[in-house]
Each structure stands twice: as structure tokens, then as C-alpha cells.
Amino acid sequence: MSETTISNRPAASSRRSFLKQSATATAGLVIGFHVPFLNKQAMAQGINPLSSATAAEVNAWVVVQPDDKIIIRIARSEMGQGSLTGLAQMVAEELECDWAKVSTEYPTPGQSLARKRVWGDFSTGGSRGIRGSADNVRKGGAAARMMLMQAAADQWSVPVAECTVSKGVISHAASKRTTTYGKVTAAASKLTEPTDIKLKDPKDWAIIGKRLARLDTVDKTTGRQVYGMDLKLPGMLNAAVKASPVFGGKIKSIDDAAVLKRPGVKKVLRVGDDTVVVVADTWWRAKTALDALKIEWDDGPNGKVSSASFAEILKAGLDAKDAVVGNSVGDAPAAIAGAARKIEAVYSYPHQNHACMETMNATVKWTPERCEVWLPTQNGEAALAATAEASGLPAAQCEVYKIHLGGGFGRRGATDYVRVAVGIGKQMPGTPIKMIWSREEDMAQGRFHPITQCKMTAGLDDKGEITGLTMRISGQSILAAVAPQNIRDGKDPVVFQGLNAPGPEASIGYTFPTLLVDHAMRNPHVPPGFWRGVNLNQNAIYLEGFIDEIAHATKQDPLALRRKLMTQHPKHLAVLNAVAERVGYDKPAPAGVFRGLAQTMGFGSYVAACAEVSVSADGVLKIHRIVAATDCGNAVNPQQIEAQVEGSFVYGLGAALYQECTVKDGRIEQSNFADYPSMKLADMPKVETIILSSGGFWGGVGEPTIAVAAPAVLNAIFAATGKRIRDLPLKNHSLKA
Amino acid sequence: MSKLNVNGKLLDYVADDGTPLLWVLREQLGLTGTKYGCGIAQCGACTVHIDGVPVRSCVMPASAMKPTQKITTIEGLSATGSHPIQKAWLALDVPQCGFCQSGMIMAATALVKDKPNPTDKDIDEAMTNICRCGTYNRVRSAIHTAAREMAAAKTGAKPKLVSELGKSVLNIEHISGDQA
What we know:
The structure holds two protein chains of two kinds. By secondary structure, chain A is of the alpha+beta class. Chain A is built from 20 helices and 29 strands. Chain A folds into three domains: about 50-220, Aldehyde oxidase/xanthine dehydrogenase, molybdopterin binding domain (Aldehyde Oxidoreductase, domain 4, 2-Layer Sandwich); about 230-300 and about 360-435, Aldehyde oxidase/xanthine dehydrogenase, molybdopterin binding domain (Aldehyde Oxidoreductase, domain 4); about 305-350 and about 450-730, Aldehyde oxidase/xanthine dehydrogenase, molybdopterin binding domain (Aldehyde Oxidoreductase, domain 4), CATH 3.30.365.10. In chain A, the strands form eight sheets. In chain A, strands 12-13-10-20-17-18-19 form a seven-stranded mixed β-sheet. A five-stranded mixed β-sheet of chain A has the order 15-23-22-21-16. Chain A has a four-stranded mixed β-sheet with strand order 3-4-5-6. In chain A, a hairpin with a 5-residue loop joins strand 4 (about 60-65) and strand 5 (about 70-75). A five-stranded mixed β-sheet of chain B has the order 2-1-5-3-4, sandwiched between helices.
């Protein structure tokens, strides 16, 4: 095979410190491997990466090379959501550079640690990539521009105020002189970074808001994009792993005698007391040896539990006394008790696996002095901390090199798989180990969408007007599992996404005379995780389904009822109205086609959708058309927002139609895409996306639309069939007439 | 020592009996553009062409391949990403995470070779690859676009799509009205 060997320089960020280090470089610092992710651009141009030390870092965010090429540093991870390009647009907007000359690189979490978190948060979850760094990346670009212009002004001995810049060309009109960023970058890099930074007025934006092409598409159409699973380091061995299929179980015994005789098998190891590892020369040999390995498990206390036993526990929580309040207006239980009429319904949501196309993997090289990890991760800093902990080395002696992710969806924000890989590497000192999970292992060892049930109750007066509404959520808390320090007074605030009191985040879009939303925390042993859309998903199904139920029970049009309840929530209402207008709600749907609506607010954005479906007499559902609207405040790259909205319907509808992870004898029953199907192209409806960028705020777009996908379709199914689906997935239900 | 005919070259490899073609391509021959997604021919991330026919290489034993059978992987599809399908993919910014896209592109190139003007139904039937990011509507749109470009090229008409490989600026304004 042909393998390009390049040196693994750190991102140019710490170039100066790197140069100091490299004077005494050890073999561990400069190792050959065929991953171009750190200096793809340099390689493509035939530039020796190490000689590019002549390219100056203007500041932490911007490197300008002498040939005017711009490298923008991106702290957040690219997992398909496109924020690599969006964030580069935001820096470039303020930098006033030539977009055609822009490329990107990831700084490493180790460099962040060494530079006092100069890039801020690395975490890429909660649709925060853009909205969580809007200010610091723009200021980074603006500061670099100011420094570059100052350097030019100094060179010309003119006031910087007399200079102008366009596309990286600095001009001084009076003296008719021009120069470029590349020519002044060395001088600019010596200046002190300004702190008084004025950002551009949004009306002057020329790069933010443009439908620019992604910066990472070419390699993704040629097979050249290197994912974690594709890494090859010199001397590398491969590892396949199997953890106790019952969470909390342990290894009882391993009989490895036969397996160790297989060709290429190097070691059979344990990580902790619950994970078995086979290390071999190739992954295929490691995987097949692991499959052949005789392992006895001690299932522990969870060996008998099942989805049915979870459901009983959650059901009991629907009427339990130990609930904590998430949102409350007046005395809803009293209002309902005194109401002329009461409506009640119980909904539920299953466990689901993220099923990233690229299964979990990590490549580790551990020595007693240093631990390096090559990693597709949504959270570089958490991965570095986990590496330090699992390796037994101080964080300063660890490093994580980020690689583009083959899907994340929240799964790769967790660090469980990083710890396993480091645990293997530690037992193979000096040998790079690439750990890949099989799809079966990935399915078994997920960090699952939490399960909840919800009892919805409404009180109506004699005219059918709502007097009170209660939502009792019973079920799993993600924070209790992953960040228990954030549980305050027994309350997991994330449980209430989309149901919060009016405010900038995840607020409910309706006003009821009285309201009570509370949560009885019930945590089965299956580990929950942040799953794209998180708790907004089920909360929108519960609330939007039940609003439709009230509309039906009171013979009101579902849109008219919503509008009545939303008068005090103009941004929520605006996206719903935009959808209604586009879909032609005031006119009937085509014959045999029925509509369903949903709206919600979360991850900083307002979203709504209308689904048009038909259901045949023998119960076959067809989703014909989706109209969706998003108000994310400032729309950075509209064509990528459209891509996220379209993709959200695939993720959300796939979940609604097909996906559940059931538990039997303490273990997940589904093992692969054969029993955990995903939505396919033939299922995919036409999606029309409306972007309402009302301005003044930055909202996320990767997740919120997931939450309206299922309820819009479920409400349309009700309109078509009269069948109210309150638990998912839909494949468990017959829609036959 | 066995031989595989991959991307126009006869290559030697050593692997245990039963090793799937996918893992020989990835681990013996260094062709990592072909991806592992499921190992049971469900997701299509491992799709390659064998004598022009799309095959899921994760369940195809390499030892079943004769040296006369021509295997094409994403790396061998075109030297510079210039296949009309790849150009359409680029023009419509189809990939998100990109992990499934090698397989998608291999399935799509086989489709347009077989059916130069595929209908939506043809696309539904041929494109059974799983994409978790949800690029399906752009996949459909890009296949139609590529088919139009290929038809236009045959008549000598100037292609509307310019290969933008290597360029970072591409106004893809046109996609909004062109969604499937």
C-alpha cells in the first residue's frame, strides 16, 4: 500500500512553543502517520509542515501564511452538522479576508490547556457550536484584522484609521499603497492583541448569511477523508472489545487458550472488571478471535430486569409524591379538580441508540511518560480529562488529536470508549493500539435516549376552554448519570426542555391559565446519554400530541387552538404561521392526504412543522411532504441550515417509525441495523425548509427540528385514521382501518 | 499469497480464509475509503463495484474473488473526483459527516451506469444505503443532476456544473428550488 508519511505537528497554534520543544524533540512528538488532518492544506501545497513555521499565528484563531492563505482554528468538532464551515464564516466575516483562501484546523485540547483555554469551550453538543462561540470567534477574527491593519499602518507610518481592508488586501488611499495580509502577518504577530473590539453591524455582513459550500466536502466525495477508524500508525495493532452485555455485570472467567493460538492474535486483556479485549495485527482477526473467545459473565443484580419491569417502575412514578417542579403557573391540580370536564392521556418514549455510522473507536499510544489519543470526539477537553484519568498521567503529559466524526448525535460527547481504549493502551506500552467497536458492541454499549412516561391532564370549562394543564413526567435523568453535580435539590433541569417558563431557552410556547410540569425521577440501570434533540424530543411529542387531543375533544381546529394559546409567544407563533402559510393550511390537503402540526422551542431556536401523510386501507403510511420553519435568530449558512432540517427529519422520523432498544435479562436485545432499522431514502418525504432569521440572537439548528418530526406525523396519522399513537416506535402499531 | 484486481491493478494480499473483501481492502491494501458500518450487508457503507455491479464488500469473502473480476473502490472511481456523480455531490454539498458517502456514491454511480436517466422509483430501489445524518433528499437531487449533466455531455452541450474541486467557494444557491 502507499502510505503518505507526514510528521504530526501540533496545530500551528503553539508553533513557537512547539519549536522550542522540537529542539529537544523525542520520537513521541514527531511520529509518522498517514493522517492529513492537521496539515492537509500544507500537504496539498507541497509545503513541508515544519517549514511553515514562517507562517505567523496572528492570534489564537487566525494563522496567515506568507502566500495569503488563511488557516482558521476551529475548537468545536465537525460531525456532519457543518459548523466547521459556519464558524470559519464567522471568523472570516470579521477578519475581512478572502473566503477562497480559507482553510481550517483543529487546535488540540492539550494546547488549550497550555494556553489557558484561549479557544474557550471545545464541547460540541446541545447545538452550541455556533451559538456558544458566536462572540469569541468573531472577536478572534476582528482582533486579527485589527492587528494586521495596524502592522500595515506601522509599516507605512500612517494612522491605522486611514487604512481600509477588503478580502485581505489593506489599502491606504491617500498614498495609493496596498499590501496583503500575508505580507504583514509576521509583523502583526508581534503586536499585542487588542481588547477593545467592535464587531460589525449585522447589516454589513457579507460572509455570514451566505449559502457557501462546506469546506469539507471534497474529501468526503473521494474517499480521502480520514476518520478515526481509518487511522494507521507505524507498528499499530488493532483491538476488538466486548463489555459485559448487562450494564453493571462483570467478567467471571475467560478461556483464551485456543484464541491465543490463532494467527495474528497478540494478547487477550481485560479493562476494568467488565471488558474483554483481543489485540491482534488486524482488526478482522481481533474481532473474529473475540467472537470465538469463551467468556463467562457474572450478570450481577441487573440480570433479570427488562423493558417491562422498567415500564412498571415508570408507571408508578406517574402518581408518585416525589416529583420536582419544572414549571408552575397557579394551582393547576385544583383547577383541573374543579373543571367541568377532564381529559387524560399517558404517553411514553423508548430507549434508542444513536447508531452513528462510524462505530465508536479510538487510537491510543501510551508510554510511562505520555499518552496520546487520536479521537473522533464531540468534547476534546472531556476526552483529555478522561485520558489523563485513565492513563494515570497528568493532563499536561496527555494529548488528544481530534478527527472529523463519522456521526456523533451526542454519543461522542461521552468518554466511556476513550477510557476503554486508554485502558488497552496502558497494557501495551509503546505500541499504538486502534480500538474499534463492532456494530454489535456499539448497539449493546450505547448511552441511550432516556425513557420516560408522561401523564397529560387537562381541565376544561363548560365552553371547552382549558382551565389547567398538568404534565407529570416519570423517568430517566441524563444528568443524574453523566453530571450528577448538576442535579440541584433533586432536580434535573434538562428534563424540562421545551416546557420551561418564558425565556431564551427551551420555553413553552403556550399560555395556560394554570400549569404544572413536574418530574418523578426514575433511573433504570441502562445508561442514558444526550441523544440528538435530547429531552425536547419526547416533551414535544407529549405536549403537541395532547394539544391535538384537546383540539379534537373540543372540536377545534388544531391550528386555531394553538394560535389561541400562543398569543403571548410571538416567536413560537411566527414559525407556526410560516408553516401554515407555506403548506396552504387554509385550503384542504389533496384528496386522501391529512395534515399534522407541531411546534416547539429549544437549543435557542423556534421550530414548527406540518406533515402531510396518507394511510392506506391496509395501514401503509406514506409521508408525502414536510414543511418546516426555523427561527434561529442569525442564520449563518442557510443551505447548511436546510441540510440540518432535512437531516433532522431523517433522524427524528427514523426514531419515530422504527427505533427502540428493548431490554431483556438486563441486556439490550437489538444488535445491528437488521433489528434496529434506520430510515432509508425511499421513506424520505419532500422537505421544504423556511428559515426565519429574525436576528438579534444565535439559535442552534442541529437538534430542535428533530422534536417536531414525530409529533407532526403522529398528529397527521390521527387526522388520517383517528388512531392516537402515544408510544413509539410506530412499527409496534397497526394503522389498518 | 492471493491476488485481487483492484482499481486496475493486480495486487497481492495475505489474509485468512473467510476474511471479507472489505477488511482486505482496508487492512491489507490500505484502501480506507470503503467503510465498515454494520458487517451484515445492511447499511451499504462498504459498497464497491465488482465488474460494475454494486456489492456490499463486508459479506463478500475476498477469497471468492477471481483475479479476472474487476473491483472498483471509491479511490478508483476517478482520479480527481471528476465522475459526474462526484461533481453533482460536490455541487449540492451532499455529505454531512460523510462516513456513508463512499458507499452512497458507489451505489449511485452503478445506478446511473445502468439507468442513465433514473426515475425517483429507480433511485428508491437502488439507493438502500443508510445515512444517519439524513442526506437522502440531496442524494436524490444529486443523482438527477448528474444524470442531466451526463445526458447533456453526450449531446455536446456545455455542462452547467463546473467541477469545483479544490475551490472553497461555491454558491449553491440553486439547490433551494431543486430539492427532491
